[in-house]
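Readers of this paper often ask what the protein records in our data store actually look like. Such a record has a labelled line for the sequence and another for the backbone structure tokens. Nothing more is needed to write down the fold, since each code stands for a local backbone conformation. The record that follows is passed on verbatim for readers who wish to inspect the format.
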Amino acid sequence: MNKKICIVYTHHKLGDLIWQLPYIKAISDHFNLSVDLILREKTQAKKILKNEKFINNINYNNFRKGIYYWIDVWKLIKIYNKNKYSHVYILDKVNKPAIAAKISGIKNIIGPGIGNQKKYLTTDIVLNDDDWNLNYSEQSKKLLRLHKINLGDPYPKLNININEFNKNNADLLYNGKKIAFGVDSFEDYKMWYEEDFVKLAELLHHKKFFDYIYLICGPDKSYIAKKIIDISKKDYFIDCSNKDLAGVITAIKNSQFFIGNNSGPLNLSAALGVESFGLIVNDAISELKYSKINFITPTNYKDNTWIRDRKNMKTLTPQEVINFLENMSL
């Protein structure tokens, strides 16, 4: 039987998808075949992954709940039946893609098997229920190890044609030295304060680190970029909150370095090969160990301690950040 591989990942956050890229590539390398993906549309994966040779095709499914649950199962069945996959790998514990694969009669359905998912898989090689406590990256790593799939380079990498991105976002191509600030996050408790980004910009500008700063945030949090600009009253900020993911990639890739909160753009920047600095205060750097992010933490920081209070972000000062950057000899 000819092999045709599909990999499903249901989470909507861009950063989470980026963390899965080494595992997707490892499955592709294992079979010596480019693979198809089924992902959420919100990831904008068709834009960011189109230059990856280990990926053949990307389909979107929004993996909704409630009354849409079985509609999305039916959509998955249609994708499976159309492509006649020999293998479906599911890189999280969601039941829906496994149920659809079972209905479609796919011979090899592989997933972590945590909770009820194991009932719909075609293998007994699954993770333990205790592995629920592992982060998504560690779960995928263990799943591949159990199935004797070798993981090569564990660090996420993104290959893009920057000339194509520059051409479509020429309004971002300012002359001079540019850096990027990632100023938002899905979780507010991970966000450094706007006035601290303003102060950091002042310190960096005084030391001639940049001519312009891209402010990277989603359109739903455009008020953060606007507040930074309003507080600073400086014209060196470039508001990217109205840009789609292609525009964000253009801004980051044209930056000398990126500084930001623990969020999707930080992971994106590191995967793009840009020198990246994460402002980590209220969450764990241990979860980011397979990235090339430089971690900037306050002096009293303790790893694996989760503090869901944004006020604690104040324990990392702009002066500490610039001291770290100067010690890096940027």
